[in-house]
Structure formats: C-alpha cells, structure tokens
Design goal:
The complex is a heterodimer of chains A (313) and B (274). Chain A is built from 12 helices and 14 strands. Chain A has 313 residues and is an alpha/beta fold. In chain A, strands 3-2-4-5-7-6-12 form a 7-stranded mixed sheet, sandwiched between helices. A 5-stranded mixed sheet of chain A has the order 9-11-10-13-14, sandwiched between helices. The radius of gyration of chain A is 19 Å and the shape is globular. Chain B is an alpha/beta fold and 274 residues long. Chain B has a single domain, classed as Rossmann fold, CATH 3.40.50.970. Chain B has helices spanning 4-28, 34-37, 40-50, 74-84, 123-136, 156-167, 188-191, 197-203, 216-228, 262-271, and strands at residues 65-68, 144-149, 173-179, 182-183, 186-187, 207-212, 234-239. In chain B, the strands form 2 sheets. Chain B has a 5-stranded parallel sheet with strand order 1-2-3-7-6, sandwiched between helices. In chain B, strands 4-5 form a two-stranded antiparallel sheet. In chain B, helix 9 (216-228) links the parallel strand 6 (207-212) and strand 7 (234-239). The longest helix of chain B is centred in the first third of the chain and has 25 residues, at 4-28. The chains are: A alpha/beta (313), B alpha/beta (274). Chains A and B meet through helix 3 and helix 5 of A and helix 5 and helix 6 of B.
Chain lengths: 313, 274
C-alpha cells in the first residue's frame, strides 16, 4: 500500500490537537500543502497563519510557547529551517523553548518544484545547533506516532517529512512504538547493515531483498532520530555485521552519513559506504526519475553494500 | 500627569540606573553605554510606575511582559531589574564575566527576562507571539512591552512583525522605539534612511505616539494612551539622546560600544549627583 506523508500529517494534526489541548500551530501560508488546515478546521482558536514570513513565524512561535504549551511551526523544510536558521538558533534552541519545527518537503523527492524547494541541508544544519533534536519519519504510517513523540518531548525538535507518495511500512499507526533516540530494526541480517533515513528506509528494505537473492544477509535499520542518534544499535550492527551503508535523501555532508560515521569512528570503526546526494543540487523532474538520476535507489544501495562487504577484509 | 513626588521618585530611579550602568560597563570593560543611557528614563517609568510585575514572583502567569529587542542595551535592563529587586545588585559587578548570571545579551535564565535577545529584529516577533499567546489563553490583562532600536528598523523581520501585530489586532502590545539617531557605524540616516518612521508605522496600522523619551510625564502618558487603544498595537517613538545624562558621551555623538575610562566614569557619577 502506498500513501502520502502529508495526508498522514493532516490526520495526525487532527488527532494530536485533541490530545494536547494547549498545543498551538503556526504556519506561513502553507496550511493546505502541509495539511495543517486539518488542525485549523478543528481548533481555529489555536491556529495562526502569519503570511509568507517564516522568520516572524519562528518569533511568534517562540512568544506563544512562553505560556507553557507546545507550539508547532510547520512549513516546507527549506523555508522552515534554512530561511529562519538564525532565528531558530537564537530564539528557540539557545533558550530551549518548547517549539517544534514540523517540516514537509524534505529532500529531492519534492520533484518538479526543483532545487529551490528541495531541502538537502536541513538535517545537517538542524543537527548542528545545540539543544535541537532531529527526527525523520520513514513512512506515512509512523507520522502520527512520531508527531506525538515530538510534541511530548520538551524543548525544540525538528521533524522532517518527505513529500512523495511512498510505501507504507507501518500499517497500523496505533501500534507504532516511536521513541525519540531509538532506531527501529526493520529486518535482521548478518553480512551488512543498511541504515536508512526517511524514504530511503523503503529503498533499503528493497535493497536487502535484492541482496538476499545474491546470498547476502542484510540488516535494515530505520534510524528515526538522527540526533540524538541510537549509538547502541549502530555499534551492535557494526560489531555483528562488520560493515555499514547509510542511505538518505540529503546532501552527503552533515546528515545521516556524517552522524553514523561519527559513531563508528569513536566506538566501532568498520567500513562504511554512503548513499546520498554527492554534494550536488538536483533539478526539476518526476520524483522517481530524480532519485534514479541522483543515485538514491535500492540498486545504488546494493552497489554500495557489495563495496562495503568487499572492504571488510 | 505624574505627581511631583512621583516624578522625583522616578527621576531618582533613572539616576540610580545610570549610575549602575556606568559602573557595570566600567567593570566589564565592554558593553554598550550609549544605547543604554538613552533608555534609562523609559525604563524607570516602565518598571517603577506602569508595569505590572512582581520581582518576588517573576514567572507569575498574569504579569506584564517586557522584551528588550535591542538586546545590546542589556546594561540598562539589568540595572533596572536589579533596582526593582529581581536579583541582587551584586550580580551587576559580574556583567559579562565567565560563570556569571548576566550574559552580554539578555537570556531567559535571568529573572525578569522572558525572551532571549541580542540578534536584532527578533524581539518584536516574539512580542507578537506573547501578545497572541496572552489572548489565546484568555489573559486579557497581560500587556507586552517591546523595546526596539532605531538602527534595528533595518531588519526585515521588524516589518514582518509590524504587519502581523496589526493583522492580529494586538492592542495588548506596546512597542517603544528608542529613537536616538545613531547606530554602530554612525547616524542612522547615513547607514540606511529610516524616516519618515512615524508615517511608516502608521501606514502599517499602528497607533503611533511621538514623545520626548527623556520626559517622564510624556513617557507615562504614552503608556496610558497605549492601554486605552483598542484593536491596534501602539508604537511609541521615544526621541532620545544617545548617552543622555553624561557629558563625555554627549561629546562623542553616537558612542555605541566603547567602555568608559576611570576618569569618564568618575566624572559621570559626579554629574549624576553621586
């Protein structure tokens, strides 16, 4: 079954508005495309659209949060994190205010809108700020659980969603146990571990199936939280499978690959290969064709896995 | 109109604030004296006459809120908060020192500070958020005071917030623009032409009041008018003099960052009547 992250987000907004009576949502003229309109329809007195003014939206979110309830600022990731970066740093993270950045349109899977709308540095820059936590959902099925966990977590959190329609990996949203800081093992394996972020978790699962045909047993991990990262699960995977491949719809610097490499270098140095954008912008185009052209596919993960296994000796 | 006794009381508070500022910046040998002095009278009237706060309960839910958007004027705020009893005066002598409470720019660990500032342009947005939050949570009596700089008007975010405050009809928000005519590089109108500021704010939908920012009666009556204004935010353009209250700063127009020498501090204390 395939589904859309944003439709899942819309349903999740409606649910958590009921669960958190003091939650406010702020957006910047994208209530339809972020589906936060679902929150507006049910809780209009706690919803604020501030026009096309992301820096101001961060400041307004900061101010509202001083009354004690959590606040979500939601917009496309490029405009939610990169345009008001300094506001997020100084107004939210330094004073640890209880504001969540819930960003849609993470990665080049945004497709036709092109480079200006494809956030490929967002995980890196949010990860770089002290006090900020970084959460990336793998599929629409875990959006509700992730959003609930993010709203419950005190202080600033960045939650990144992709835009494209994708395979649903968690069929019953109510059964998802989403814990910030904990990765999810999607598949056991002994020869290599594939660590995926966001949409690339599904590509990793498909890659594991392809590798299985070659007689290679691949473990697949859905990282879920890039910061704080699940050191224990990564070290266990390195020790038990001997090599790692990371896969992310993000630039190769500062994102998942960097975060995993930091863990491996310190705790379990094993060969690691990376599937990511190789320090390049993408372009406009249909999502699947873009992912193919820029190497964000199951086939690319297989290629890197074989290389990592080869490097083990 | 302030009574004679009240006016004398507030004048004395402003003198003490100015004394504490010069001493703390001299101690720290860094900080922003000019833009702190221009605000001393506004702060005295705000904290010792108009503001609803309780230094013994600085997080009280129904308190008024102050945001110093021009965060580099931290010394005037710290001196005022200490004089009002939010924290011991002793802290002032550790301004900007390692392991101390009083950071170079205001942060929320400091009693009486609700919003971290120092990066210009951000505080008015946060003030809008507080004003929205007060209305959202039914705290109709809470008033928000945002103190912004004139050089700060160059930041685009100020105008994003200006539009938002009028759009959301934030009549619980009062902004005070410290119009001292100087910024880091020199006169504001040389750096980036700001005038006509009154017309700009009015056209953005604000109730705009021009005052002499060193006239205590005018400051108080502007706050009163702001409280009575419905459906729109109020902008008080406080015409001030950077370094007001000293002779040495007045001799160096626009003195922004330089700390005083020992002689300059002693001269200032004498001029202030200490």
């Amino acid at each position: 079954m395939r589904w859309n992250y944003r439709d899942a987000l819309g349903e999740a907004f409606a649910v958590i508005g009921e669960e958190f009576k003091d939650l406010a949502v702020v957006t910047a003229d994208v209530s339809k495309s972020t589906r936060s309109i679902k929150f507006k329809e049910r809780y209009p007195e706690r919803f604020f659209s501030v026009g096309i003014a992301e820096a101001n939206a961060v400041g307004i979110s900061a101010g509202i949060s001083t009354f004690g309830g959590p606040v979500i600022f939601t917009a496309y990731s490029v405009f939610a994190t990169e345009k008001p970066f300094e506001q997020i740093r100084n107004m939210l993270c330094y004073p640890k205010l209880n504001v969540k950045i819930v960003a849609t349109h993470g990665g080049i899977n945004v497709g036709e809108d092109g480079v200006t709308h494809q956030a490929i540095e967002d995980v890196a820059i949010m990860r770089a700020i002290p006090n900020m936590k970084v959460v990336v959902v793998a599929d629409p099925g875990e959006v509700l659980a992730a959003l609930r966990a993010v709203v419950k977590m005190p202080g600033p959190v960045f939650l990144r969603l992709a835009r494209a329609e994708t395979e649903v990996l968690h069929e019953d949203a109510n059964l998802v146990n989403f814990e910030i800081g904990k990765a999810e093992v999607m598949r056991e394996g002994t020869d290599v571990t594939l660590i995926g972020m966001g949409m690339m978790v599904w590509e990793s699962i498909k890659a594991a199936k392809l590798l299985e045909k070659e007689g290679i047993s691949a473990r697949v991990i859905n990282i879920r939280t890039v910061k704080p990262i699940d050191v224990e699960e990564i070290v266990k995977a390195a020790n038990e499978t001997g090599c790692i491949v990371t896969a992310e719809d993000h630039n190769c610097y500062g994102g998942l690959g960097s975060a995993v490499a930091e863990v491996l270098a310190k705790h379990a140095p094993v060969p690691m290969e990376q599937v990511a954008l190789m320090d390049t912008f993408a372009e406009s185009g249909e999502c699947d064709l873009l992912l193919e052209k820029y190497g964000l596919t199951d086939k690319k993960i297989v290629e890197r896995a074989l290389l990592a296994i080869q490097r083990k000796k | 109109m302030l009574s004679i006794e009240r006016k004398e009381y507030l004048e004395k508070k402003a003198r003490v604030i100015r004394k504490d500022i010069i001493e703390m910046i001299y101690n720290a040998q860094s900080g922003h004296p000019g833009g702190s002095y221009s605000l001393a009278d506004v702060m005295a009237v705000l904290y010792f006459h108009d503001l609803n706060v309780d230094p013994k309960n600085p997080k009280g839910l129904n308190r008024d809120r102050v945001v110093l958007s021009k965060g580099h004027a931290a010394p005037v705020w710290y001196a005022t908060l200490a004089e009002a009893g939010f924290f011991p005066k002793e802290e002032l002598s550790h301004l900007r020192q390692i392991n101390s409470l009083l950071q170079g720019h205001p942060c929320i660990n400091i009693p009486g500070v609700d919003i971290t500032t120092g990066s210009l342009g951000l505080g008015l947005s946060a003030s809008c958020g507080i004003a929205i939050g007060a209305k959202m949570t039914g705290r109709d009596n809470v008033r928000v005071y945002a103190i912004i700089g004139d050089g700060e008007q160059g930041e685009g975010q100020i105008w994003e917030a200006a539009m938002a405050a009028a759009h959301f009809k934030l009549d619980n928000l009062t902004a005070i623009l410290d119009r001292n005519w100087y910024q880091n590089d020199g006169p504001t109108e040389t750096s980036l032409k700001l005038e006509p500021l009154h017309d700009k704010w009015e056209s953005f939908g604000w109730n705009v009041i021009d005052i002499d920012g060193h006239n205590l009666n005018q400051i108080d009556s502007a706050f009163c008018m702001a409280r009575e204004t419905k459906n729109k935010p109020t902008m008080i353009i406080a015409n001030t003099v950077k370094g007001k209250g000293t002779s040495y700063m007045l001799d160096q127009p626009g003195l922004h960052y330089t700390p005083p020498t020992k002689e300059q501090m002693e001269l200032t204390l004498k001029e202030l009547g200490f």
